[in-house]
UniProtKB/TrEMBL annotation, chains A, B:
InterPro entries: CblAdoTrfase_CobA, P-loop_NTPase. SUPFAM superfamilies: P-loop containing nucleoside triphosphate hydrolases. This is Cob(I)alamin adenolsyltransferase/cobinamide ATP-dependent adenolsyltransferase. Residues 1-23 are annotated as: Disordered. GO terms for biological process: cobalamin biosynthetic process. One of its GO terms (molecular function) is ATP binding. Coiled coil: none annotated. It comes from Microlunatus endophyticus.
């Protein structure tokens, strides 16, 4: 069983409890599937802990992630209605971030991505959530819409106990270096190879 | 963006719609994290489609997967109460499968695993669900508790439109061969390497 075990005790001056509760910067990368899906699976654990979760979806597509979004919004409703679990917010760039009033900002992806990152910075500084999903965040970084050095500095210096998970292909090396946990998803076999198209319930 | 695209049209006599709705056998394997988490993430999409989902958890641990279980059970409740999404059942071997009456079967893991697989076979034959998660199912197979040839034959010949996802390390080659989609999760960097212990909300 993949139970975690510790090979040595680090000389970092932290108690076991402090070390156990250390906030993590996690990355899911690689060309395979499951990067985002596993991040949303982690959000289920965060919800169950009663943590406040915020998803920032840096992709443009109406149907993309709609299944996960609906399910996590349902869990948020359960929290609002019955107090179970924690609150979950889902913000997506595609239709204009929900906290902005501008409707037409959809056309300028670079500005929208930068605005998304600024909001994440504000929330990290305010310690607004315990769990952040920055979905497909490697793309706006790689396209130069969000400054990599700013991202690395902000995330490594974030205050309090805020877990962050970033997904996406071609993750910048500096970000991999700053992360506590990096998992690579690799395509071993895919139905697209056999001419299979994406299907409802599986791909979205 | 990782949108699926088809490189060639296969000569299999199927219409695009038939091909699109082909039931998939999916596998998440490798030594990295996210194998099960991504499977439960897929269950969110299945739920959103209104599909009937059943999780069979072939691991023994009280806290293991408790976050995902609580969240998916909450989604099932939302379905029962308000008709949104689909039903989700969660069965685990650790505490004795929920459909058996025997309490003491906990001690005989081999018998419990075999009983779990028999139930899955019954449900596949009856086309009871649209989405099955066989979590950590490679272990009982590798330990000889469940017959590999029977698993491969049953899954490749399953009737109707039933999607199946199997997770676990060291997946048998015959099962990989039978699968439509195989994703490998690889550990690139892990906090356990730096003496970090598993923590609530992240590991369970």
């Amino acid at each position: 069983m993949p139970q975690g075990h510790v090979s040595e005790t680090p000389d970092d001056g932290l108690t076991t409890r402090q070390r156990r509760n250390r906030p993590l910067l996690m990355i899911h990368t690689g060309d395979g599937k499951g990067k985002s899906t596993a991040a949303f699976g982690l959000a289920l654990r965060a919800w169950n802990q009663g943590w406040s979760t915020a998803v920032f979806q840096f992709v443009k597509s109406a149907k993309w992630r709609i299944g996960e979004q609906s399910a996590l919004e349902q869990l948020d409703r359960a929290h609002q209605d019955s107090g179970v679990g924690g609150p979950i917010e889902w913000h997506k760039m595609g239709s204009g971030w929900s906290w902005t009033r501008r409707a037409g900002s959809d056309d300028d992806h670079a500005a929208a991505a930068a605005e998304g990152w600024r909001e994440i910075k504000r929330r990290l500084a305010a310690e607004q959530h315990q769990f952040y999903v920055l979905d497909e965040f490697s793309y706006p970084i790689n396209w130069g819409w969000v400054d990599l050095d700013d991202v690395v500095a902000t995330l490594t210096q974030r205050p309090g106990n805020q877990h962050v998970i970033i997904t996406g292909r071609r993750m910048p090396q500096e970000l991999l270096g700053a992360a506590d946990l990096v998992t690579g998803m690799t395509k071993i076999k895919h139905p697209f190879d056999a001419g299979q198209k994406g299907q409802r319930g599986i791909e979205w």
